[in-house]
Design goal:
Length: 117
């Protein structure tokens, strides 16, 4: 059961990580993109260092259920910050429009969106 849960978690984590990196690179202008990606990735690694310490302390203090709920609260806070505070709609906008924060529709120079059928 634990192995199956770990496999499921890994399978769900990879697409989310790829989407996060793609979106982060898309919302920053070209001149700041590398710095912004480095800062975001570094903070993610810092969280990876701190999470086991926090999880073990919570596990020792509150048991399995308490540790789970503490990490669930952290995940919910992160989701809320990203969803409410940081997301900008970029669908149908060129990177130039996103970088200059110009509202608009699909740029005439950009290729049309097609679906693979």
């Amino acid at each position: 059961m634990i192995i199956a849960a770990g496999l499921l978690f890994s399978l769900l984590l990879v697409p989310g990580t790829a989407a996060g990196y793609t979106y982060t690179a898309e919302i920053f202008p070209t001149h700041a993109r590398a710095s912004a990606m480095s800062i975001g990735d570094g903070l993610g690694h810092l969280g990876g260092v701190l999470a086991p310490t926090v999880a073990l302390a919570a596990l020792a203090a509150w048991g399995g259920h308490g540790a789970f709920w503490l990490l669930a609260v952290f995940a919910f806070i992160a989701f809320a910050v990203i969803t409410v505070g940081a997301l900008r709609e970029t669908t149908g906008r060129s990177l130039v429009q996103v970088a200059t924060d110009e509202p608009g529709t699909i740029d005439s120079a950009s290729p049309a969106r097609t679906s693979a059928a």
